[in-house]
Amino acid sequence: AMASPRRGPQLLLAIVGALVALTYQTNRKSFIYVQELPMTEPFLVTALDFASKEFNKKSEDKYNFRIVRVLKALQVLTDHMEYRLNLEMRRTVCPKGERNNCTFQEGELYKKIDCFFSVFAIPWFEKYKILTQNCTNG
């Protein structure tokens, strides 16, 4: 039989899934695993991009916001995988729907916000969903 190249991630997912299920039944309250991620982690980059796109979709603002700094990025594994992101975002000069190299607003339209996102993720299948979004004026 030919081994499909997609077997690796699925196998890993199955193993992680089994471990998670096992630990989860043993103690429903405990997190299994929390780690801080480097900004270079590819799935994290995708999660950050997803969070900012979703933020701009829902935002009432006429302009897009863009991430200035990632203050903290945690990966949390319980019965699912989650990214918890603390971000600093700023209003750009790009109106909604425009995303190409947007510089930041200065002067009267300057706006900085601090946001917390919790993003549900099954990165192997490119599935992401915002569980929590909480932004305050920075």
Descriptive notes:
The protein is an alpha+beta fold and 138 residues long. The chain has a single domain, classed as Nuclear Transport Factor 2, Chain: A (Roll). The chain contains two helices and five strands. The protein has helices spanning 7-26, 42-58, and strands at 33-36, 63-77, 81-95, 112-122, 127-137. The protein has a five-stranded antiparallel beta sheet with strand order 1-2-3-4-5, with helices on one face. The longest helix is centred in the N-terminal third of the chain and has 20 residues, at 7-26. The termini are far apart. The mean pLDDT is 85. GO terms for molecular function: cysteine-type endopeptidase inhibitor activity. Pfam families: Cystatin. Residues 34-136 form the Cystatin domain. This is Cystatin 11. One of its GO terms (biological process) is killing of cells of another organism.
Q: Largest sheet, described in full?
A: 5 strands, antiparallel
Order of the strands making up the biggest sheet: 1-2-3-4-5
The Rg value, from CA coordinates, equals 18 Å
What's the end-to-end separation, in Å?
Answer: 57 Å
> Roughly how much helix do the residues carry, as a percent range?
25-40%
Distinct helical segment count:
2
CATH architecture: Roll
Q: Count the strands?
A: 5
Q: Report the portion of residues in β strands.
A: 35-45%
Specify the overall morphology.
Answer: elongated
> What is the fold named in CATH at topology level?
Nuclear Transport Factor 2, Chain: A
Structural class: alpha+beta
Low-confidence stretches: none
**Order of helical and strand elements:** HEHEEEE
The level 1 CATH classification is Alpha Beta
